[in-house]
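[SOLVED] Predicted holo structure with zinc ion

Edit: marking solved, answer below. Original request kept for reference. I posted the sequence and ligand SMILES and asked for the 3D complex as C-alpha cells.
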Amino acid sequence: MSNSKLVCFTMISPNSTNPRKDTIRKITIHHMAGNLSVETCGNVFAPVSRQASANYAIGTDGRVGMYVEEANRAWTSSNADNDNQAVTIEVANDRIGDDWHVGDAALASLVELCADICRRNGIGRLNYTGDATGNLTRHNMFAATACPGPYLQSKYPYIAEEVNKRLAAESGRAEAGAEAGPEAGLTQITGEAKAGAAQMRTYLAGLNPEAPDLAAVYLEEGAAEGIRGDVAFAQSCLETGNFRFGGDVKPEQFNYAGIGATGGGNPGNSFESPRVGVRAQIQHLKAYVNREPLAGECVDPRFAYVERGVSPYIEWLGQKENPQGKGWATGKDYGSKILRILDAILDVDAPEEKTADESAKEAAEKTERKKAGRKTRKEAPAKSPEEVTVDNALAVALITEREHWLGLLDGSVKPDKADIQYLLDAAYEMLKKNEAEQRLLR
Ligand SMILES: [Zn+2]
C-alpha cells in the first residue's frame, strides 16, 4: 500500500490502528473548524491524549500533510467501520464559522488528492449518494457534528465530478492504448531530453561562465518525472537571465524558475540546495504538462496551485498563446523564447560528459563564491595581441555578456552597478594582460 506523492509534510500521529482492518474503498472529507497549517495540524494530532488523527490534511495554502499512513486506520470520523475503509482528509477553513468556507487552493488540492487516492487504491469512481452507502462520506453521517460544514458539504457533488473526470480521462487514454496524439508542429515537454549535458553546459558557459553547472542535474531530475530536462534548463536560462539573476530572486535561493516570485520585489520560494531547486521546477512544470502523479516526494510548494495538464507543449506555457488562456507565464511569447534557447542549445557541438554529483557540488561552491563577491566572474576570452585595442576589448567584453546586456535593454534584467564595473574590469584586464598593448596603459 502506498501513500500520496502530493504530501509535502509528514508527522506520524500515535493515534491510529495499525494496520487498518479493511481495504480502502472510501474517502471521508472533514473540515478542521479552524485555519491550521499542515504543521500545526501535526502538532494537534501528536499527543496521545488527543485520541484523534487523519490520514491527510490540507492547509489553506493547498499543501498536503500526512499523519497516518494509508495502510493504517486514522481516528477521524467517529466510526471504526467507516475509517477502516476510508482514507480520511482534514481540510483547513479560510474563514471561521458561518458556512465554514474553504479556500480555492485547498479545494483544488483536495480534488487532486482524492483522485490520487482513487488511482492508487483501484477506486474507479467516487459515488456521492448523500448517505453512508456511497464511497464519499461525511463526518455528520456518523455523528452529531457540524463537520464538514455547509460550504464543503455543498462541494461534495463537485468534488466527485472533478475526480471522476480525471479518472475517466485516464482510463479512456489507457483504453486507447496511448496518450492523445501530439498536436502537429508543437513541442511536447514530456519525454526524453534531446540535448546532452555537455551541450547545455557549453551553451550556458559561453553566456555566463560563472553560472552553476547543473546540466546533468536537470537531465536526471527531468528523467525521474518523465519531463524533458533540457526544456526545463532552457526555461531557467530565460527566467534567470542565464543564471545571473539580478531580479527579485537571488542565486542563493536555488530558485531557477522564479517559483512564487510574482514581481514587485517578492523574492518567491527558496530551496535547500541546487538539486532540490531544480526538482521543484521540474515538478512545477509537470503540474502544467500533465495530470500524472509525481514520482518523487513533492518539494514544489506551489504544485497544488496549478491547474493540471493545461500546457503539454512548450508553445502553450505562456498564457497569451495557450488555447485556454492558462499556463506558466503571463508575458507574450514565453514559449517561443524558451524554444529559441533550446534550439541554440541543440546547435552546440559538445561531446564530453560530467556526472551530476560533480556538477551539483560545483554549483554549490560557485554560489558561495558568488556571494563572496563578483570579482571571480570570468575574464573575457583572450585575443591575439594585434587584435586588442581599447575599443575592441570593450566590444569583446560586451559580446561575451551579450545575453545579459540584451536583458538589461528589454528590462528582464535589472541594471546593477556591479555589471558596469565588471564590463570595465573585463576590458581592462584584457588589455593589461596583452603585452603588445602595454604601451596604451602607461
Ligand atoms: Zn470531522
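OP edit: Residues 30, 139, 145, 147 surround zinc ion (CB under 6 Å). Thanks to everyone who chimed in.
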